Sequence to fold (299 residues):
Amino acid sequence: MQPLRRAGIPAPEVRHDPAPSRISYRLNRIWLSPVLRRIITFVVPSVLVIGLIGLYISNPNRQAVLRGWVADITSSIEARPEFQIRQMSITGASPVLANAIRERVEVDFPVSWFRIEPADIQARIAGLDAVADVQVTVELGGALNLRVTEREPAVIWRRAFSLEMLDETGVRIAYIDRRDGRPDLPLITGDGADAAVFEAMTLFEAAAPINDRLRGLTRRGERRWDVVLDRDQVIQLPEQEPRVALERVLAMQAAQDILNRDIPVIDMRDPERPIVRLGTEAIDYLRLTRAFEKGLAKK
Fold:
């Protein structure tokens, strides 16, 4: 049987279809997804690396070696001279307060910069009564700098069993043993006097003309002041506008010399109706004067 095609005629060429197969097309479409590409190129390798590292360090012996290695590196860095703090500098504090700060900080020098906690040191120093504010800075290769703002004492508050120095806001600065330890500071007494220090300071300022006779201020009922002078003389001030009432008394003193008379108490609690309480000698003199006037009247 003879072939149908003729001798010498080539067989027809089979053409390749350029279109991708269905499986190839779907794989290419899936690969174009950003989420899948990120998972394959980043998440999967990361999980493998982390798993291998975790498997490696799960051995207790390797963990001990790693901890020792980290500790050696840390110690070598901390021991470098440029990270050493060799001294502490305190500015703005009195010698007594500076010694109290050194005792409160409790740092043995030299010490590594990495061992210093400025926030902790600041909190310790701010806890001192005499400190209003503090700034802590650390200089590499230098010193621990403490810039302290010390509270200024304004008055002495006499309590039942103690004497306390207060600043103008009423915050305690320190205790003192004796009143003559700070004779330059005015004296206040009474419960609640620490809450009205600013008002007391305004009264001390107004009482400057009689400062040589002024002994102090006494808080009454935690709402008003008494001005205490020598010779047991008292000026009772009102709850509202006590400075105005005190200035009225000083005006009467300038006009009538009222404070140099035998008047133990000047009651200004009602500014519209000042009341004076006469002393024994003044009362006797008043009685004698009235009796003398009556005698003259009878004649």
